[in-house]
């Protein structure tokens, strides 16, 4: 039994867990606790963490396990390791390795599936981001099937550019097979975006990034995606990828139920400044916490933690603790169709709970304990 404060009301709540599920969450008499409870955080886009690059087929299971434990300390209970554009052999090799980790590691219970970001994206500088141009290629149904086979059927999100030839047909195909089609790294016009939505796309990947430095005032693919109500959108809220003013406006445009916090973390996340790897790209973490390509100022993932992202969301978007937490729990669960995480501390949901202390000015979360499937996977020392 857990007794803590509910983020929406500040009132005490008593949470009972049974058989890896939340049995009940009921109001309780307030005691002296200063701990808040939330569903465990869900990150839909993690390229790597704690020095571990998920895009490497050679990374050891021990290193993957260590990187997952490092995320547990940030309040994350479920996440999608993300494989970006690379050679066919490298992408399938990385997914096979990650699928084995999901199957064999105790920590693998936190892997809710996989996010494949590319290779069917724009080849243009700007929208392509840090993805290697040489590995960008047009949509190919057979390649998607090879990737899904390597992932043991666990690809949940697939990001592609809707303007690429055959994109709409591929979106229809993957959506019919239970995969969430996401738009990203795109130079699409409004008609192409709307065609992709009619084909079944439901999510914009890290909206506002993977874009040209300079765009027409209007129309452009950022405004077009913000305006489409059928698309939820994820945002990297580290204060580096997006300015606070954009976060505030974008969250208001998308609405509180269709906005999702992601880290887009890459291997330097949780590490000291220095050189690291992101797929086929050499990257560096600067003293200012920027992850960028070596020899360039082009961003290459982030060093963001989900708990810090929740704090940033509150500050940038001027929203409450409970609202920011929904963008890191309920909203990503809905977008990724994680049926056992449908509610906010709801009876019947997976027993994923994070306990934390909260300081409101400025907003800060301090993770005390992380519980996944009813078992403690992290406790602060």
Task: State the gist of this model.
This protein has 381 residues and is of the alpha/beta class.
Essential attributes:
alpha/beta, 20 strands, globular, TIM Barrel, single chain, 10 helices, four-stranded antiparallel sheet, 381 residues
Helix content: 25-40%
Largest sheet features: 8 strands, parallel
Using the coordinates above, name the CATH class: Alpha Beta
Based on Cα principal axes, name the global outline. globular
Strand content: 25-35%
Give the beta-strand count: 20
Characterise this structure.
Helices cover 27% and strands 27% of the residues. It has 381 residues and is of the alpha/beta class. It has a single domain, classed as TIM Barrel. The strands form five sheets. The protein has an eight-stranded parallel β-sheet with strand order 5-8-9-10-11-12-13-14, with helices on both faces. Strands 4-18-19-20 form a four-stranded antiparallel β-sheet, with helices on one face. The longest helix is centred in the first third of the chain and has 17 residues, at 88-104. The two termini are 21 Å apart.
Give the helices and strands, then pairings.
Blueprint: E1 2-5, E2 12-18, E3 21-27, E4 36-39, E5 41-46, E6 48-49, E7 52-53, H1 61-72, E8 76-84, H2 88-104, E9 114-117, H3 141-150, E10 155-160, H4 167-176, E11 180-183, H5 190-199, E12 203-204, H6 221-227, E13 232-236, H7 244-254, E14 259-262, E15 274-278, E16 281-285, E17 291-293, H8 306-317, H9 321-327, H10 330-336, E18 353-360, E19 363-372, E20 375-379
Parallel strand pairs: 5-8, 8-9, 9-10, 10-11, 11-12, 12-13, 13-14
Antiparallel strand pairs: 1-2, 2-3, 4-18, 6-7, 15-16, 16-17, 18-19, 19-20
Helix pairs in contact: 2-3, 4-5, 7-8, 8-9
């Amino acid at each position: 039994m857990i007794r803590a404060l509910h983020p929406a009301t500040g009132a005490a709540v008593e949470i009972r867990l049974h058989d890896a599920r939340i049995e009940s969450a009921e109001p309780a008499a307030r005691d002296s606790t200063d701990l808040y409870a939330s569903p465990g955080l869900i990150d839909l886009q993690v390229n790597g963490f704690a020095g571990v690059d998920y895009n490497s087929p050679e990374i050891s299971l021990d290193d993957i396990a260590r990187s997952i434990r490092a995320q547990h300390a940030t309040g994350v209970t479920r996440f999608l390791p993300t494989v970006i554009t690379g050679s066919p052999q490298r992408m399938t090799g990385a997914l096979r390795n990650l699928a084995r980790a999901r199957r064999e590691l105790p920590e693998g219970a936190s892997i809710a599936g996989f996010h494949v970001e590319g290779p069917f994206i724009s080849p243009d500088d700007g929208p392509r981001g840090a993805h290697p141009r040489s590995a960008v290629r047009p949509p190919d149904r057979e390649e998607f099937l090879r990737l899904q086979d390597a992932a043991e059927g666990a690809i949940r999100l697939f990001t592609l550019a809707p303007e690429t030839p055959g994109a709409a047909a591929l979106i229809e195909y993957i959506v019919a097979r239970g995969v969430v089609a996401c738009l990203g790294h795109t130079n699409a016009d409004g008609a192409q975006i709307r065609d992709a939505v009619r084909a079944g796309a439901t999510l914009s990947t890290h909206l506002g990034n993977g874009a040209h430095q300079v765009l027409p005032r209007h129309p452009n693919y950022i405004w077009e995606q913000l305006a489409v109500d059928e698309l939820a959108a994820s945002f990297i809220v580290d204060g580096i990828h997006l300015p606070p003013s954009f976060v505030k406006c974008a969250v208001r445009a998308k609405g509180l139920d269709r906005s999702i916090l992601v880290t887009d973390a890459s291997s330097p996340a949780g590490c000291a400044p220095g050189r690291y790897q992101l797929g086929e790209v050499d990257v560096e973490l600067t003293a200012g916490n920027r992850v960028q390509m070596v020899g360039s100022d082009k961003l290459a993932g982030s060093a963001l933690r989900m708990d810090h992202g929740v704090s940033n969301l509150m500050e940038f978007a001027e929203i409450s603790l409970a609202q920011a937490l929904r963008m890191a729990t309920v909203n990503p669960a809905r977008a990724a169709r994680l049926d056992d995480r449908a509610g906010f501390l709801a009876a019947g949901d997976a027993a994923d709970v994070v306990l934390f202390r909260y300081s409101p000015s400025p907003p800060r979360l301090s993770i005390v304990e992380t519980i996944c499937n009813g078992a403690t996977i992290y406790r602060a020392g």
